[in-house]
Structure formats: C-alpha cells, structure tokens
Design goal:
single chain; 152 residues; alpha+beta; 2 domains; six-stranded mixed β-sheet; 6 strands
Length: 152
C-alpha cells in the first residue's frame, strides 16, 4: 500500500509543481514587462510584481526539492508493536474520529486522499511528528487529544 501511496504523493507534488512553475513564469513576465514600468513615484506595480515573482520562484525551488526527496524515498512497513518513526503511517482516534498521518521528510501539511482516506503528511518540523515518534499502538497524547490505533 505504501508504494501506491508514494506514487500518489509524487503525482500530487508534480501537479503542484507544474501549476506553481507556470504561475512563477507569469509573475516573472509581469515583473519584467515594459508595461509594468512605474508611471510615477508612488506607482509600485513593478516592485510588487518582482516580490511576487521572487516568492513564487522560491516556492518552486522548495517544491522541486521536496519532489526530489520523494522520488528517492521508499517507506518500510512497520510491525504493529514497533516504535513510530519516519515512514510510519499512523491511524489515530482524534476527537472521536479516525485520522491518518504519514511521517515523511518533506511536504508537511500536505493532505492527500488515498483509498478513500485523507492522509496528512507530517514532516520533522511538525510538533505532532515529534510527539508521535517513539510512541506505540495504544498510546495516547493529551495535546492534541488522540489515541494511536494502528501503525503500519
């Protein structure tokens, strides 16, 4: 299941990268277009367009790096009694509802739908990632209030 999950994540990241790269190209074109030249000292269209282009270019670089990470990533299966660590798919009871978290090296916060379930990617920068590491099936957390149901 994890290999198809990784394929899904890669496809989602590729699609996002394509959309963002197109937007960054358009923002760069707007910033360098002669028509966006300032018409007065208070006209900041060109400056704003250049800030937008720079920010989007930075996002493209970050997303490309994340995709590169996922292209080389493989996720091991975990025994149900194993310590939760990077690569684990964790099913939890969160506020009385089932939630799924996948501990990965990048793209934390991305939510994908796979096999009818929403799975939230958690990266090491996430507090929840850190709280889940080393825990086991049946363990509970107070903040956020959750109980670990299954680890795979």
């Amino acid at each position: 299941m994890k290999s198809s999950l990784l394929d899904h994540i890669r496809a989602d990241l590729r699609a996002q990268l394509g959309r963002l790269a197109k937007a960054a190209t358009e923002a760069h074109a707007a910033a360098t277009d002669p028509g966006s030249k300032a018409e007065g000292k208070y006209d900041t269209r060109s400056l704003e367009a250049s800030y937008l282009a720079a920010g989007q270019a930075r996002q493209v670089d970050e997303l490309a790096a994340a995709l590169h990470t996922f292209e080389a990533l493989s996720l091991a299966d975990f025994a149900s009694d194993a310590d939760i660590d990077a690569g684990a798919l964790v099913e939890v009871d969160l506020h009385g509802e089932t939630a799924f978290f996948l501990l990965v090296p990048a793209s934390g916060g991305l939510v994908i739908t796979h096999a009818g379930d929403e799975i939230t990617l958690l990266s090491p920068a996430s507090g929840l990632y850190q709280k889940l590491r080393g825990r086991h099936c049946g363990d509970s957390l107070d903040s956020p209030p959750l109980t670990i149901r299954e680890v795979s």
